[in-house]
Amino acid sequence: MRVSRRTTLAGLVAAPLVAPVMSRAAAPDYTITPTPVADGIWMITGADEGIAFDNGGAIANITVIATPAGTVLVDSGPSLRYGQRLKHVAESLTGRSVVRVYVTHLHPDHGMGIGAFAPEIVAALPGTIAGMSRDGQGFSDQMYRLLGDWMRGTDLALPGKTIGGDEEDFGGRRLRLLALSGHSAADLAVLDEQSGTLIGGDLLFHDRAPATPTADLARWRQSLAALDALGHKGAIPGHGPYDGTGRQAIAQTRAWIDWLDTALTEAVRGGMDMVEAGRMVIPEQLRNMASGRYELQRSVSHFYPMLEAKLLPRVDQS
Amino acid sequence: MTQASIRRNGVETRYPPDPLGSPMWTYHAKTVFGEDRVSFDPRVKLSMPDLAENQHCFPVALDAREIGDVRRMVIMADLNPIPLAVDYRPLAGAPYLATRIKLDQRTPVRGAVQRADGSWLVHGGWMDAAGGGCSAPPASRVKGDWAQHLGEMRGAAWPTGPDGTARTRILIRHPMDTGFVPGIPTYNIETLSLTSSTGTVLGEMDIWASVSEDPAFTIMPRAGMGERLAIAARDSNGRDYHASLIVGGGL
Ligand SMILES: [Zn+2]
Q: A35 with A42: CB under 8 angstroms?
């Protein structure tokens, strides 16, 4: 398999496994269990792991919203098979057809299930659609490599509807659409006005270390401030458990990226190489976040060369 | 595990069996170690991340300070089309070398160090990686700005304390073309040396195109606070690159 260069420049939300996919055996079907978190809102909790054959790539949280106009989904999972199963489970749960699928951002664990839905009901921010058309093939190649048979039939699909406005009304249930950025170049957050539930996409990580393959930490901080000011009740993060306080996931995500920013800058200034930076001590107060070491090492890969180019002085004589 | 020869399956071989079970072990061992004695030793600390987030830029650190009398340090990846990455001679200083390499597929990554008596100690592990680490064009080729930045060097040296060495980091802008991208011939930094203010060569290395684009090295030559170190590198087109930095200065 020839992998495009973008595959690794953009990275994946979860990274290569330690062991490659050896088995070509058919994968079992996904188990999708929605949990009610507010009136007419269910959360499907992703596995608290990286993308791996054992979890079929189902690591991102998915939200189901029942509205008078039909069922709304926020994110669609990693594969066609997941999307199909999700559609069946969500429609059985609410008794109404899926009328809208939002894709929060370009990463494949959130958006590669959209092939199960008619393109015209799949909506995303313009920057997300641009990102998916640019990086989608690379993501797809890596997902096939990691997940094998789980991916069967999954073709690269793009959302057919570009989000322009800042809200959508589904028979009286109004969803506010917030166009933010920082985890990626375009991150959609959705606020259900009826229940006060915020669906944060990957701007929010809860009890799990944030992933940074396409991150801009300064913008991410601004987006977190915007979310903090919303006055919502509970929050559904992109990864990790439901946050009933609505504030904890925001605070945790901010604490991690603030630390990361400072720690990597200090590592470069102090003369550490990349291996050492990936092994630095994670502060006590951040150790409750799952996959911390894994995400730190990924973040070193994402940011270190850029920081070195910024912080280390020119020494050539020309 | 040190021995002149081992009889295995009725075939005489002078290398111990590879704990990593690499299909290329004996082949590479012949090239790198020749007639020298070889053993596997965990005191050769080869550190790398738990995952290859970017197979074009995979960090590796080789630390042989526990062994002491080291005269050569080699970093290699068995299943890369260019298996050798760096061959470093720490002539004066501590045996430490960190760099970044390309990974073309799942492969053993090894560090090997040669002691003053000529024997080699080896350690390493398997690392999984997506394909194409050596066969994709470097970012600066795709962007098209490689020539504008060619040879730009960044770096600094930090005094590291009682052993009188300075942690020295050197980064060079260079595409490090492997020759496996159609239409782009091999073009890489081949040698780098570090010289003290009195003209003593403190360390020198041979470098292959399996080292990542814009190579980065961390070494620990003997050098005191305020000392000026001169760096000279040459690429496969015979182009020379020079830099100088002062220990403890300028960051
Ligand atoms: Zn993401």
A: yes
